[in-house]
């Protein structure tokens, strides 16, 4: 077994990735997908029932929301990072263990698919590391490259989960690098002011389009963190999966929310990527956990050591504002409705709306999303976002969140899990409406 020192590991990563940092393989290309022109609206009823308590352990409570084939776990955690990780592992031991093991198996399958020349979701630079060092070491090289930029509380929480479940800390740490290793084609919008003048709300969309054949659809969970004191932030909801502690979707008790799109089709304005920085799933969680305003979130992003090409979205119900963020190791550019980029006939600027469909350069989806937003402009609501905007654009196949940041209400849907019937993709399935104010306020 080869043993790498920290310095040696970082040098190995740098040498393996230096070519990646010089240019983008897909620079200037465009995605060629588009929605089905015969897409139908989503007319399913929305679940509105209050959360139902299932069980509790020290520092954790399990509720369910939704119903039938669309039940989602709602987990409350209390305490220090270690205590919350341990309580999460005790409360959800079976599901957390299965999810983490299934994600590990998924990574192995993705590597095998790449070797066989079949479809996979892994980045070329990571496959080179796997070829040179094997999967375990390749993931450890990735975690070593990001560790200096990552808050220690992430690792404390992982240690708690490892102690509770019996899983190895290294396996938990490794699977949390998956966001850095793959690209998800997703969509987002932020809408306020005249775009929502019928209700005067600040709304935000986060549509996750990723691998619906992977294990993720089987473990939907909203994890609500209640830190023991302000050293560890404020209450926030992490919308993801059982055992997952990074953030790709979520909102907090300060009326803020996040969106994210992986960029596979950038242009030259993105500059370079890097593997040395904070994983994006961790900086997004830091925004939810520690930031109380859009201003604070934008400062965090500006000053961070950033990694891969992304479009981020951050909304603030108190400020009645949203920013789309062009994000890479080289740039952090913030856009509102009057300067939204890129400029193209398929990506028109819309008053009091910032939006992106599936990628930075993705005419087919962006044009349909723009048309839907223009159709409903002045009356954009969570309801017509669910019924038409996302269903007709066909975005949000794995999971989908609509945030009402004015009233702190969440609407969420998940892809069809194994063993149930109905539509496969989240944007075609029933949504669950959750009033998050009492959720964030729930005491231990």
From TrEMBL:
Parts forming coiled coils: none
Signal sequence range: 1-28
Keywords assigned: Signal
Alphabetical list of Gene3D superfamilies matching this protein: Penicillin V Acylase, Chain A
Official protein name in the record: Acid ceramidase N-terminal domain-containing protein
Source species: Salpingoeca rosetta (strain ATCC 50818 / BSB-021)
Native organism taxonomy: Eukaryota, Choanoflagellata, Craspedida, Salpingoecidae, Salpingoeca
